Amino acid sequence: MKIRSFAKLGGAVALSALVLAGCGSKSTQSQKKELTWVQQSNMTTMDISKVTDQIGAQTLNNSNEGLLRMAEHNKVVPGVAKNYQVSKDGKTWTFNLRHSKWSDGSPVTAKDFVFSWRQTVDPKTAGQYAYIFANIKNATKINSGKMATSKLGVKADGNYKLVVTLEKPQTYFKYLVADVEFFPQKASAVKKYGSKYGTTSQDMAYNGPFKMTGWTGTNDTWHLVRNKNYWNAKKVKLDKVNFQVIKTPETFLNQYQDNKVQVTPLVGQQVKQYKNNKDYVLRSNAATWYLEMNQHKYKFFRNVNIRKALSLTVDRKQFTNKVLADGSIPAKGFVAADMSTHNGKDFADDAYVKSAVESNMALAKKYWAKGMKETGKKTVSFNLMADDTDAGKKTAEYLQSRFTKLPGLKIKNLNIPYKTRLARSQDGQFDMVVTEWIADFPDPITFLSLMQSNNAYNNGPWQNKEYDQLTTNAEGRDANRPNARWNDMVKAGKLLANQEGVIPLYQQAQPQLVKSSVKGIQAFPTAPLWDWSKTTVK
């Protein structure tokens, strides 16, 4: 979501702001019960089977709903399903659905989930998140075109009971069914809108706390309005959430000081200035920014000494403290810290490889010379692609200044809109790209699975058979053996680090100023990050 994890987010969430609609008088604002959430980029799609960006995912998380909903502290709570049971062998999950409705008043049934999941794993859909269904019986064979979608291990037992059969036990499956990829889809709507489905707010069906209006697919404003047919509508306090895309969020600080904005992001030196303010809030994300290299297009990037040299040029502490200066911290590895523990130990600490994330320019030049000799190169030039956000530009400029200390290397920075960067990354139209993964659920495999050789999000792709086997063991042979599974993942994490399959940069933080009048914003370290269904404004 992946940034999202979930899909790769171009700094948009980190630079979000919450604004009181209309910025009028307090009485008018309170009466309207409206908020405006500022995004830095537009959505790519609202198609549940195709969404990959975090902005689309967080919107869907509020306009639609799955079997369960994410809650704070890595908990899940009932959604469309009022309860569920898991068989003793851990392979059969039975969800008992409540009598909920779509926004048009028609019932949400188990068949809507069956249709949706089949739609996503269907190879004709070409959904990048199909891989996350891999543990559902026959999903992999179906997605590779070797079996009909009707053979997927999910069935409707009447209208309000959904039975899911897994290939093997999966303790974190409860988190998966809370992800937007597992949400129901109304078959009649998908068929009615055809290729337009999910491309505008009108060409979509909703079953969540809100429903979306005003999105044409390309415009910079849209809205979430209260869904009166939502099963828990009485608990939704806001009438409307307004979204607008603004690429200069720093301007909201002045509006915050003028009491026109209730929540504003802080960037750069603003954090230092306001970190002792009573309104200051620092939220940590299970999100890692990293460098991905096009190893398919350039044999040069397949050389491990070249990758190690590039990584060693980066002073991550200097970068996060002096350049970003927003509370973000140096990455310990590809998997985010403070997300997942086992026997009291954080995964990021267990899989930590100091040499993979340290800075040593002298050693970098030695690896560089060795790699240049091995690849027969005397000079090298490539484009560094990043978002056109403030953070994206700062990151590219810093990396360029560090990389070009290596003899014979020239870098051209290419800062482009997030939506374009995402598309080009997926199509392999890049040399090196600054990108991000936000955990879809609190388990190391949400990161590690990305780097499996055939994963759709492994855009390089970096490929390693030993790594593939370790992650396969964690999801297969050792899936129900916690200690062995953890060890598999730690070994995989260390292997990825030692090989510099990707180059981790930093773990994102979200510094904000929040007025005391705003309550109930649910923030999660993993996807979908935000839930406004319980938000209130006084």
TrEMBL record:
<dbReference type="GO" id="GO:1904680">
    <property type="term" value="F:peptide transmembrane transporter activity"/>
</dbReference>
<protein>
    <submittedName>
        <fullName>Peptide ABC transporter substrate-binding protein</fullName>
    </submittedName>
</protein>
<feature type="domain" description="Solute-binding protein family 5">
    <location>
        <begin position="75"/>
        <end position="458"/>
    </location>
</feature>
<keyword id="KW-0732">Signal</keyword>
<dbReference type="GO" id="GO:0030288">
    <property type="term" value="C:outer membrane-bounded periplasmic space"/>
</dbReference>
<feature type="signal peptide">
    <location>
        <begin position="1"/>
        <end position="21"/>
    </location>
</feature>
<keyword id="KW-0571">Peptide transport</keyword>
<dbReference type="Pfam" id="PF00496">
    <property type="entry name" value="SBP_bac_5"/>
</dbReference>
<dbReference type="InterPro" id="IPR039424">
    <property type="entry name" value="SBP_5"/>
</dbReference>
<keyword id="KW-0653">Protein transport</keyword>
<dbReference type="GO" id="GO:0015833">
    <property type="term" value="P:peptide transport"/>
</dbReference>
<keyword id="KW-0813">Transport</keyword>
<comment type="similarity">
    <text>Belongs to the bacterial solute-binding protein 5 family.</text>
</comment>
<dbReference type="InterPro" id="IPR000914">
    <property type="entry name" value="SBP_5_dom"/>
</dbReference>
<dbReference type="GO" id="GO:0043190">
    <property type="term" value="C:ATP-binding cassette (ABC) transporter complex"/>
</dbReference>
<dbReference type="InterPro" id="IPR030678">
    <property type="entry name" value="Peptide/Ni-bd"/>
</dbReference>
